[in-house]
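Inputs:
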Amino acid sequence: MSEEQPTDGEQVSADRGRLSRRRMLGLTGTGAAVGAATFAGGLGIGRATAAEPAAPPTGTSRTYPFYDAHQAGIVTPAQDRLHFAAFDVTTTSREELVTLLQAWSLAAAEMTQGRPAQAEETSYDSPAADTGEADGLPASGLTLTFGFGPSLFRDAQGKDRFGIADRQPKELKRLPHFPSDNLNPVRSDGDLCVQACADDPQVAVHAIRNLSRIAFGTAEIRWSQLGFGRTSSTSKAQTTPRNLFGFKDGTANLKAEDTKDVDTHVWVGGQDDPAAAWMTGGSFLVTRRINMHIETWDRTSLREQENIIGRDRPHGAPLSGGTEFSEPNFTATGRAKEPLIAMDSHVRLAHPTTNKGAAMLRRGYNFTDGNDALGRLDAGLFFLAYVRRPSTQYIPMQMRMSREDTMMEYVQHTGSALFAVPPGAKQGGYIGQNLFT
Amino acid sequence: MSEEQPTDGEQVSADRGRLSRRRMLGLTGTGAAVGAATFAGGLGIGRATAAEPAAPPTGTSRTYPFYDAHQAGIVTPAQDRLHFAAFDVTTTSREELVTLLQAWSLAAAEMTQGRPAQAEETSYDSPAADTGEADGLPASGLTLTFGFGPSLFRDAQGKDRFGIADRQPKELKRLPHFPSDNLNPVRSDGDLCVQACADDPQVAVHAIRNLSRIAFGTAEIRWSQLGFGRTSSTSKAQTTPRNLFGFKDGTANLKAEDTKDVDTHVWVGGQDDPAAAWMTGGSFLVTRRINMHIETWDRTSLREQENIIGRDRPHGAPLSGGTEFSEPNFTATGRAKEPLIAMDSHVRLAHPTTNKGAAMLRRGYNFTDGNDALGRLDAGLFFLAYVRRPSTQYIPMQMRMSREDTMMEYVQHTGSALFAVPPGAKQGGYIGQNLFT
């Protein structure tokens, strides 16, 4: 390594043969020059002055803080792309699990700021600390949101896996079977989850890949899901996107600006569950992989589609009149006293007024995962919803919808999971710290 | 339908109960108001003034013409997202096949300009002419590129399927088996293909879905592939992206600006194959689904990775020195006369100078399709390359690489296809017209 030529006033510790990942990328080619120069007898030095093309191909430079009272990625304005992964913990050691959560938190704090996953020093003769495919891409609004499944607390036999069973939130139970569920067990449940949202899918995929890599030997991916387009707005500044039924989705969603509603419906309060006080400031995440029979839907008349949804397609306005953001009038009737918004329409069955005021913060994504053997697209909605109490905010509504919602003829739920999403980590701390201390 | 209220000076043909798809979306709510008013006794009219939120959630407004000498989506600056589909033709009727190509061409001409798939009139009591999920999204640089597989010309028994066997290009043969291929037949081959590229994945998915819908009864999807990030630049104005090995990919790719090289290496010439003169101005598309063993790769030292690639990771400069766009010096040696760029490195084996000057226009995409049962991401590179002569530009190089390239230890080819991509359609004509007339 005698031919190294530090540049830009940076010190390269040649005898240790190590240089920081961040510095290596920050320097104009030095990291590479060090390696090549070893072979090249000085030839590599020319590369040290290589200039990077300026503009990144995609993405945005916005960043969200990782260390915060609540985890980012919940009320954060929904980013356009998703990579979600559920993990099985493979270790039986509580210490290794805690070490994983610490390492994940550190890596998340780096990556969400647009930096490589691991900032520690690395040797040029070791695997790189970061896998590299997001080098040069901006942070792209990346958020990483972590959750714990019921199986993290107790195994299938009810055994306490990591000495935390007495702290399992009473709301954190495997979701019940809903009528017409057709769940694939390998696409359901999980001990841990990570929701990666970003404006650039390469940034989201990079994050899940590096977290999976960090978990090697401690946890492994059980299932994962890419989402190519958001189907909900979580901020009033966002336009309402469309789902694969072609309709605007999530018009009546909770929005970050309605802080009182968010406090009521999303964040777990200090008195909600005294045995699980570590969840204060956290939330519960329902995930449902909802396949859409889009070929069947596409053969249905526009009138029928609108009656099933209860809104018009062009603007998303309720069929009782008004604009997209008008409140639906469920008592309005038309000819022959028929309700303008059908009794079995989706908007009626999902609306807070017909669910004892229950509301959710939805954060779902459209997905397409290839096609089936009959040439039909394997596509639909990956439903994500954050609620304070699944037992009152999600389960009764879904039970009712799966029985009464006409839309159920066009969808099939193929994956399901519930996770407890702890509050945010403090600077220097880690996600879930209050559960383990 | 007596309560319709035409707005904005538009005429609504009430007695026919039909209104154009485009007008329906263009009018501020009229289409929906028509439907709702039927039930609502006038209540729906209020919606006719609903204003759309201004900003679309994503995408760009750039458009590329559909009718052109060459098909768009080849030398077009590579868009960020991909949805690719291969189709099996299910009809035995030549006429139906031609009708499909005509309908596809019309729909492509609409969608690439940011309009719904079908502009013809539709009834509110019929299925909508467009599936709707791209309503309100800009064109996002959508290109749709169509190709014909060898199986369109002759079936497995060699039988002429549609009276075009005598016009099958001699270059259009099923790709040979390459050493270490592990092809999944249901992810390989196909009678027809459509490559949808756009800046917004929802726009690309919408296009494939609507083309598949139009094909119902004539052709069905055989396999499909989403790509979330481009791995090649096809224009000098673009920065070089990174593949999932973390390296810049396609630095030495053909670029649209090198029109002479493009003419030499991409476009089929009038004298190339007199029996298949209909291909003049077209090209051949090689598709390969290349799974990357990213977990294994990630455990390899950075030095080893760079030696396998033959370039440095931070900047993509050849290991012989210089910057990203410096020509690799394959004769340069370092200590002990070892070549700076290893003999079995990817850059050496793929380079035109070691392939009798053969070059390709690459247009590949990173993909992640969930994970396998061992928790490893099902991820890699969906390789797309346009060449004038597969027999000299792709097959010998791939044969050599699959034997000698050290990178082959980290990848597995799991899908393969070759398509003849005809020239562009003339205004009023359709893709492949010269093949059928």
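Chain B is about 20% helix and 20% strand. Flag for discussion at group meeting.
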